[in-house]
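[audit] Reproducing an earlier prediction to check determinism. Same input, same settings, fresh worker. If the tokens differ from the archived copy the diff job will pick it up downstream; this log only records the rerun itself.
[audit] input (103 residues):
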Amino acid sequence: MQETTRTRIEAEVFRRLLQPLDERKDVQNIELMNLAGFCRAFAAKGYVAAAENHRAGIDLDEAREITYGMPYADRKRLYQKEATVEQLRAFAESGPGPGKSHA
């Protein structure tokens, strides 16, 4: 497979992964982290890291807007709820994981 084709496919896969996250605004990041070790914040920070690797000046706010589909402050104000004690406990007890430093 040609590298450009692979890159295009991977970009499409990334957009398809973001779509259900955007459609399910009721699902909180901590719930995603507790279930999958992955959340929207992890995707945004990964976007920044990948942009840095390619010397594309994308900052965290820009990456969050791409990942969340809107400015992060708006997303937080409209959809983010306080984590419950149970969610925080489950997060703490789940141990280290690939997305833990990105929650």
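[audit] rerun output stored. Observation attached for the diff report: The chain has a mean pLDDT of 90.
[audit] end
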